[in-house]
From TrEMBL:
This is ABC transporter ATP-binding protein. GO terms for molecular function: ATP binding. InterPro entries: ABC_AA/LPS_Transport (IPR051120), ABC_transporter-like_ATP-bd (IPR003439), ABC_transporter-like_CS (IPR017871), BCA_ABC_TP_C (IPR032823), P-loop_NTPase (IPR027417). Keywords: ATP-binding, Nucleotide-binding, Transport. SUPFAM superfamilies: P-loop containing nucleoside triphosphate hydrolases. It comes from Janibacter alittae. It holds the Pfam family ABC_tran. PROSITE patterns: ABC_TRANSPORTER_1 (PS00211), ABC_TRANSPORTER_2 (PS50893). CDD domains: ABC_Mj1267_LivG_branched. Residues 8-254 form the ABC transporter domain.
Length: 254
């Protein structure tokens, strides 16, 4: 469906694994400034779609643009530099680095710079100082300041999810793609994560959210896009998607 102010537009995106077609999306648009949820049964191709369009995986075909520019040939760090970042379903925190070091390293990794973790403790370059300030702001925002100098390995699963989101935000993205940010997180922290996601949207960021909890999806989304067997089968406002027979069938058939 065409959107009045699409920030992201994808066409004919195909990704196969051997004989399996994991993603086969004819057309998908994301409206700027919204929370758009990507739903669908396990194995529907949601994570694969994220991997492909964020430059972490190569497609068998397709093009996609971000803010009007074709980004479909760019590697992940150059996509990130354009302002489009993603998180992973399984968090990538490095357990032997502190929370703050994870953020600082994340910032440079995302934009493709070499950075030796041991040097993080001696930030003599002005750029590193700037990154440090940003890291501290995000630790504060996500209530992780008390974990600043603790190894990520000592953090709870939920805290690591917050750290993962904070890390994606280090590069001040325009659009953030979150792959199951609430998975395995306790209810209180889920509420907190949802609050953070809404706050980011209210600040003007575009959010694409993969989430399996339908109550969460229906409560937070401006728009819901449904995948099944790699294809986009339905999209619409939450209330319409809730009643959509193709969506109901996809879940019952799974
Ligand atoms: P979702 O995130 O919607 O649960 P995925 O994108 O992870 O689904 O997977 C879509 C399909 O692609 C699944 O059938 C999965 O087994 C398959 N798949 C994903 N990644 C790979 C891979 N690296 N190699 C082979 N098959 C894969
Ligand atoms: Mg997935």
């Amino acid at each position: 469906v065409a959107k009045p102010d699409a920030i992201f537009v994808a066409d004919d995106v195909v990704r196969r694994f051997g004989g399996l077609t994991a993603v086969d999306v004819d057309h998908l648009e994301i409206q700027r400034g919204t929370i758009t949820s990507l739903i669908g049964p396990n194995g529907a191709g949601k994570s694969t779609f994220f991997n492909v369009v964020s430059g972490f995986d190569s497609p068998d075909g397709g093009t996609w643009s971000f803010q009007g520019s074709d980004v479909s040939k760019l590697p992940a760090h150059r996509v990130a530099r354009r302002g489009m970042v993603r998180t992973f379903q399984l968090t990538k925190a490095l357990t032997r680095l502190t929370a703050r070091e994870n953020l600082m390293l994340g910032a440079t990794q995302q934009v493709g710079e070499r950075f030796i973790p041991a040097l993080l403790r001696f930030p003599w370059r002005s750029q590193e100082a700037t990154i440090g300030v940003r890291a501290d702001e995000l630790l504060e925002r996500f209530n992780l300041s008390h974990m600043r100098d603790e190894f990520a390995g000592t953090m709870s699963g939920g805290q690591r999810k917050l750290l993962e989101m904070a890390r994606a935000l280090m590069v001040e993205p325009t659009m953030i793609m979150l792959d199951e940010p609430m998975a395995g997180v306790n209810p209180a922290l889920t509420q907190s994560l949802l609050g953070h996601i809404q706050a980011l949207r209210d600040e003007g960021m575009t959010i694409v959210l993969v989430e399996h909890d339908m109550d969460v999806v229906m409560g937070i989304s401006d728009w819901v896009t449904t995948f099944a067997q790699g294809r986009l089968i339905a999209e619409g406002r939450p209330d319409d998607i809730r009643r959509d027979s193709a969506v109901i069938d996809a879940y019952l058939g799974a």
